Amino acid sequence: MDYQAPRGTQDILPEDQTCWRYVREKGEAIAQRYGYSRIDTPTFEDARLFTRTVGEETDIVTKEMYTFADRGGSDLTLRPEGTAPVCRAYIEHGMASRPRPVKLYYLASIFRYDRPQAGRYREHHQFGFELFGEADAAADAEVIEMAWRFYRELGLITLPVQINSIGCPECRSAYLSALKNYYATCLDTACSDCKTRYHKNPLRLLDCKKPDCRAAAVKAPHAVEYLCQDCKIHFDKLIAFLGAVEIPFEVNHRLVRGLDYYSRTVFEIQPAEEGAQSTIGGGGRYDSLIGQLGGEHTPAVGFATGIERIIINLKRQNVAVPGMPAPRFFIAWLGDAAGLAAFSLTAILRQAGINLIQSLSGRSLKAQLRQASSLGAEYALIIGDSELCKQEVVLRDLLRSTQRSLPLEGIVESLRSV
Ligand code: HAM
Questions:
Q1: Is residue 261 part of an annotated ligand binding site?
Q2: Same domain, 249 and 162
Q3: Which of 69, 111, 144, 293 is least surrounded, with the fewest CB atoms within 10 Å of its CB?
Q4: Position 188 in a domain
Q5: How far is residue 63 CA from its own chain's centroid?
Q6: Does 411 lie in the same domain as 295?
């Protein structure tokens, strides 16, 4: 065949939908329990929304965005992350006037022109949760607790949540100077990307994955040692709140995240079984973002998790995912007149809310019953000419191989009580 799904994208086949539905239902239940309302934003946005918020020097903006000019000449970008679009919608629809905090969640496809590999795709899907209008560290802790419980309720075992504070714009500048002073002494051994980061985005020096750079990062100064008084109080409170709800966490001084809009809290969660692309979810506080987009200053914190990565880990950790319910009944028939009656009976039963599959051709009864079993049906309803004459159907229990006749009159009630 000439066509295949584009590189880095995937078809989600019917057999994959069991896992998808499981994750979707758990995510929606958690969103409801923590008071989040669903929001859906467009698949594409004005390109500047992302270049200005995610950060001009980030990998997402420099290498990964799908940006195109539409026929009207506007520069548009396929959503490379979900937070900036939700902030845009928050401002555009005057949500600042709603009772605070405003809590919104989304389930959206995300596009990043990345090098595809296991767990890393060019189109993936995220469950995201954004909380607006609360500056207290209790909000950060509640978001982290919700993320951790989401994985726990899915049946996933995770490592302790990694947290860090990268401070506010004021105290960060002192930290960035310290970081640059430190890296100035070891820049000659750094990779070429890090040499650029040193000048353009020094925080990201800390999360380079190359071995020499990792070794250098181990001895780098810690952001938490440069926090101003308010940021330090915030971080200490976060730790106290996480302790109060017994969320296992550890401070990772090298955690900085790949998007530039964060301030103070950043966090990530990894599954217990490590592998490439192991982070399943991450987020943090982004108090300046709404103001940066032209809204009134609004503190905010959020989190997003990749559904594909969750599913990879459900499989790795052998989590038993409940299957899709099979149709209970299958209608088999023999002869043209019975076929017509079966077709009409199927319609009546479906309108009464009974799930069933009908045979669409008058093959041998054996072949029809084989089809019923392969679909996982519990019962077959069989109609032939003699049943039609007597105005009844045969109800065959496919597991026990027993059968009995049921009158057509009152069939809906009879099947409901089977
Ligand atoms: P992020 O860490 O870039 O954060 O993405 C969130 C999650 O999406 C990751 O932890 C990972 O599970 C998944 N993910 C990211 N890239 C890929 C990929 N190429 N293939 C498969 N899965 C991927 C954000 O996007 C922020 N907007 C999160 C946030 C929400 N911060 C505050 N609120």
A1: yes
A2: yes
A3: 69
A4: no
A5: 23
A6: no
- Domains identified in the chain, total number: 2
pLDDT > 70: what percent of the chain?
Answer: 99
CB 270 within 8 A of CB 159: yes
Task: For residues 245 and 391, state if they share a domain.
Answer: no
Domain boundary residue among 316, 348, 375?
316
Nearest CA to ligand 1 atom 32: 302
- Helix, strand, coil shares of the chain as percentages rounded to 5? 45, 20, 35
Q: Whose CA is nearest to atom 25 of ligand 1?
A: 81
How far apart are the CA of 217 and the centre of ligand 1, in A? Answer: 23
pLDDT at residue 304 is higher than 90? yes
Atom of ligand 1 nearest to the CA of 112: 19
Q: Give residue 259 CA to ligand 1 midpoint distance, Å.
A: 10
Task: Provide the pLDDT for residue 275.
Answer: 63
Residue 30: pLDDT band with limits 50, 70, 90: very high
Distance 29 CA to ligand 1 centre (A): 21
Give Cα separations from 179 to 158, 163, 220 (angstroms).
31, 19, 7
The single residue listed with the structure tokens 């008071």 is: 35
| 262 marked as binding residue | yes
335-366 pLDDT, tens digit per residue, is 999 999 999 999 999 999 999 999 999 899 99
Burial pattern 254-274, b for ≥16 Cβ within 10 A else e, equals bbbbbbbbbbbbbbbbbbeee
Is residue 189 part of an annotated ligand binding site? no
pLDDT in tens, 57-73: 888 999 999 999 999 99
Token pair belonging to 229: 């008084």
Ligand 1 centroid – CA 310 distance (Å): 12
Mutate to test the pocket of ligand 1, among 58, 124, 158, 285 (most ligand atoms within 8 A of CB): 124
pLDDT tens per residue, range 88-139: 999 999 999 999 999 999 999 999 999 999 999 999 999 999 999 999 999 9
Q: How many residues does the structure list for the chain?
A: 418
Q: Is residue 175 part of a domain?
A: no
**pLDDT of 85 over the 70 cut:** yes
